[in-house]
Protein 1
Amino acid sequence: MSQKIIIAGLGFAGLWASIAAARAVSLAGKDDEVEVINISPSPNLAIRPRLYEPDLTPMNPDCGEVLDAAGVRHIAGFVETIDTRGRSVTITRADGSRETLAYDRFVLAAGSQSFRPPVPGLADFGFETDQLDTAQALADHLTALAGRPETEARNTVVVAGGGLTGLETVTEMPGRLRAALGPDAAIRVIVVDGATVIGEAMGAEALPHITEALAFAGVESRAGVRVASIEPDAVTLSSGERIASSTVVWTAGMRAHALAAQVPGEHDPLGRVIGDAWLHAPAAAGVFVTGDTVKVPTDEQGNFNVMSCQHAMSLGRVAGYNAAAELVGLPLHPYSQPKYVTCLDLGPWGAIYTEGWDRKLLYTRDDAKKIKREINTIWIYPPAPDRDAMFALANPDYVVVP
């Protein structure tokens, strides 16, 4: 009976963990002895970093041929429970059937989900761009606005959260609203964030450019406040200000997938498992944690991974390789990713590109926008289904940065 590596999730970390595990098995010549299995609802990779864009058509590429070429078996379904003592997972298949699968190594790559606090009205009236279906719901809603009577609420969008996702969403939104309501519509787009200044987390060098980009797009800012409640046609801020709006987009925070809570050991406030240098879950033998479900140092300077595809892709490579390496007798590879970059899309104004945790600004406007387009349309997409080429890219030393 062959040994089994089960990987839960097919996001950026899950895809590369699957390919990297298959590569390690192949390197050891153990293809007939170790089976790599990926479990996810479908063999598709949602391109989450682009879900703020209006056209969602290219945001869900099929990875079936990629997995086949790598020699990875895909099971359409999702993991419900993890038995770390018994080394098994209970899954629900796409057809509704349930079964328990034993594993020799398990890789948790289930990703993250948007954090929705108990803000009155958020669950009923809030939109988000966290998943493909929620992004599609927002797109459908914006299109449908044209069929409503013209009111201030219809013409106003409020984006709650001024982080990277919030800034990319809000600077894209004026164009999306005008596309739905007409170029002459009297629109308002407002970003709300608890920070003292919108965009201050991007650093002092980038901040003036972010402020300029928001003004260029015609976006209003509400800093130092939060959304207190949401109604069908209004949002109330913690300052007491009430804004007429039929569209509130929530981008304020992420949490690790709920499955991470089933892995014993220390977790951080975001629900991530505190992993070791090889991405083991230290309190669960045979379990690896990767992508948005793990917190681990990226370097020796005290920096840790963030919930981003940049880190997830490298974390996936290392976790997948190490899970297989333990079974086939290859040396383990410690995770290290000292280079950190940020490329932030700022709508029609352009983009900004920074390097380092101190966010040294290197490119702005059109120059940065070209880099952003390359990242969004090439770097983060699945590889071609060429086994040798994929395996070369799946080396745990390979880091995807411009």
Protein 2
Amino acid sequence: MQPAQSQKPVEAGQSFWERLGQSYGILKVRNFRYLFLSNVSLNFAMWFQSIGLGWLVYQLTGSAAHMGAITATQGLTLLVTSPFAGVLSDRMHRRTLLMITTAVNAAQALSLATLVATGYGQLWELYVFAVIGGMANSVTQPVRQAFVYDAVGREAVARAVPVNNLAQSGTRVLGPALAGIVVGFMSTSSAFYIQGVLALLAMGLTSLIGATHQVKTTAVRESPFKTLTQGMSYVAGERSLRGQVIVQIIPALLVYPYVQFLAFFAAQLHGGPQTYGFLATGAGYGGVMGLFILTTIGEVKHKGRVLLLSVTMYPVSVALFTLAPNFPVAMLFLIINGFCNAFYTAMQNTLFLLSAREDMRGRVMGLYSMIQGLGPIGQLAMGFAISRWGPSEAVRGFEILAIVLLLTSALTLKSVRDA
């Protein structure tokens, strides 16, 4: 096992290039490097799935309500199973869990691709695949988050999280555009075939990860339900974690769901699947910019205040996006959106990992993923609202409510401000 703690921290007096070299030097840690590459491959796969599935539902139904219902089905599955996935993450070797769930993702994608290519793809089948995908992701997400800590150790985790998040934001720059081009010039089934191949590549990269810093819980002899309730009680009893959970719920329900309906905004701008794909890259550009700044400046002081500021600006940027009169202006606000989201998620991930006790980390990250499962529930509500009032008016109403709730949280949650 290669220790990451021996690397020097990024210091205030260093030059830009010295900061940059030390920040990205975390990739020299073998386990983290393979985890990062595996995450890149899997995130590309997820974008091919998201664009392919979004356009398939749009073609089959043209209904925002159906689109929201399918993603809500996946989210409900994620919501129910994520806490138990956190228990598994504390009991089993996380590399083994990742291998299994990534294999399920690959099988799901290749099966869906075959059904669509042969003309047997139907709407009800998409709901079945949503359940399967939700179960696989409920394990994958918390395990990959907790694995960052395992790969580098406590002292390097604040530097590793922004670099690891680049796997998500970086692929968001190219992934949606490439997927849109594939769907537009080839076929929807091709996007799912590519998703399957990328998932298999991620599984191969995961298999190269060696021994890590993981500490298994001593609760392996207890029932899963008891282990789960212990984790829930632990989070509820920690003021900082409890406050972070409250803050996370608001954007998960009210802000992020807009991403699933970008196809409708593309149509408003008189575009097709290519426009849809390029709109989805906007937040990715902003995310890369934000994470590049984070990794360059090194350790961030007052993480809680940075979190609250960036998460409040997140819905502001989406509200402005709904007012965009043309494609360039829409892209500008999406870039700002991605920038704010990059700061928010990096601070959130870091605080969750650092605040969690060693034997509770898997369960804490399972709760983190469970809250992300609320997003599709918000998509269901947003889908019905769009069907009634149109995309711009409906999404803007959701964002105004989110801004009010986040400002209230910033004023009342001292434990988060001081984190």
Protein 3
Amino acid sequence: MAEARIEVRLRPRGHADELLGLVGGVLQAKVSAPPVEGKANKALCRLVAKRAGVAPSRVSVVRGEKSRDKVLLVEGVDEPTLMGRLGA
């Protein structure tokens, strides 16, 4: 099964949920959810899943659960396809 990992720099408590593009190979994202009880991570996973065209359950945080710098694992899509769908 295809899967891809992507580095993300997350800004919680933004005005809207959006992906801001790549800077130095790291996807910049902001979500309106606060970084409390994993809410910001869940919002990030939903946002990436929607853009990647996979179910939210197929996106998980594999590193940086309590950090702004994270690594996400996206199942069901390979890396070149994922980067294209994320507009990177």
Protein 4
Amino acid sequence: MVPGVVWLFALLTFYGLLALTHLFIQINLSHRDYLNSIHRHRRFQSKEIKNLRGDDYFKFSVAVIIPCYNEGVEDLENCVRSALDQDYPFPFQVILVDDGSKDKSAVRNINEKFAGNTRLVISEFPQNKGKRHAQKYGFDVVGDSVDIVITIDSDTVLARESVRYIVQPFADPQVGAVTGDVRAIKKNLLSKLIDARYWTAFNQERSAQSLFGTVLCCSGPLAAYRNVLIQQIKEAYITERFFGTICTYGDDRHLTNLILEKGYRVKFERKAKAETEVPQRLKPWLRQQTRWNRSFYRELFWTLKRIILKRRNTQVYMLYDLCMQTMLPMLLVLSLLFVGYRSIIESPVYLIGYLMILIGIAILRGAYAFLRTRDRVFFLFPLYAFCHIFLLIPVRVYALCTLKTTKWGTR
């Protein structure tokens, strides 16, 4: 066997073993978390628990903060209505902060449709300041008047019991933040693929992390935080810098990191559900993915420095998962380049075999999702795998090379 083939075989074997091991560990842990959540909700709903504590066990006062900027009229109305219509019997308010929108149609519509609703507070910035500042304004308005702060995006629609469920993990005083189960609003093939990816991102990746209380990102469309912690970290949140430049995105990941840094647990609550608008065309989707990847790498450095290196009780799984999230894409690029080179100079059989392996891994990932949901869209996961290889991997490399960029990208 020629040396080049030996190196290729070794690289593919190493990458394949790492990828499959990570996938099986992730599925195993996420399924354990899923079974634990079923047991927990059954226990909470049992007659014994109701007699002992009833709903008072989760009697948290809540504020939902919605920052918006040039949002569509219908999207913002659906978002605000879903927040106001929550099935939650305890003290509850919604704070809408318009971040200096040039088009005020959506905010005017909210003022007209929900005039007199005492649960709703509307504030408008005279000029655009950025999402973090809009959220921080909401944090300031809330002060210490509530127990839990929930942040949602202005194009998100909450299920009616989302608030009721997302506050339940805070019964544990060590829980500092919780993220809900976010799905995409499906309108075409791309959004269906994105929705399938969202399911695995939350119900596999975050669910596995949640088992150890180390969810690394409370997603912007639906996240809840213990307010006493928010009041402590809100200044650090809006003043984050990367090589001297103020950060304008990656807000959800950084806010989560600030909670983890304080030693609190971060959980995933699958029964707190939301749907959010996603890009319907490739170009806006790739711009969004570029921004998300930049924030991932920025926060990766921050996490390594401020949490993993300083905290003695850092969970082993957090470190392992971060290593895999960092290493696997790099190994994928190296193996793809190597396979492409060997396919050109020798035979396309190398590339065909490589793609078959990747399709097999995608089928395995989709199979677990199908068994849980019975949704046949997960049979399209190999198609998403091709998007990942030929579109998202180049985007990730580009994002890594342009980390200092502050441009939002999808606005």
